[in-house]
Write a structure and sequence with these properties.
Length: 107
């Protein structure tokens, strides 16, 4: 019987994380180019400023996505890296009771 569920190590490959950040940067750059009218006839000054702005937005987007995803990966316990993933990571275990709400009193 084979276990075909992915492990956390399979889900956290650095090349995939860099690919996700690069894809988000490309998307943000293209949206910026389109919104600034890069593909319309407007003169060399307009196209150059649109290109510079798109590169800045793409760079900021790349760094932000990479930083956010890497910080989210810190929420995972390293001891559980080899365990198969079959539920959301941050939900409590089935045997653990839910924490009481802060407004509840047990007086």
């Amino acid at each position: 019987m084979s276990d075909d569920r992915p492990t956390r190590r399979d889900l956290m490959k650095p090349v995939q994380l860099l690919g996700l950040a690069f894809g988000a940067a490309i998307f943000a750059g293209i949206v910026t180019l389109v919104s600034m009218g890069f593909f319309q006839a407007g003169g060399p000054e307009k196209t150059q400023s649109a290109l510079v702005m798109a590169l800045i937005v793409a760079g900021v987007s790349f760094i932000a996505v990479l930083l956010i995803v890497s910080l989210l990966l810190l929420a995972i316990d390293p001891a559980q890296v080899a365990k198969p993933v079959d539920k959301p990571v941050l939900l409590p275990e089935e045997g653990e009771p839910d924490a009481p709400a802060s407004g509840d009193s047990t007086d």
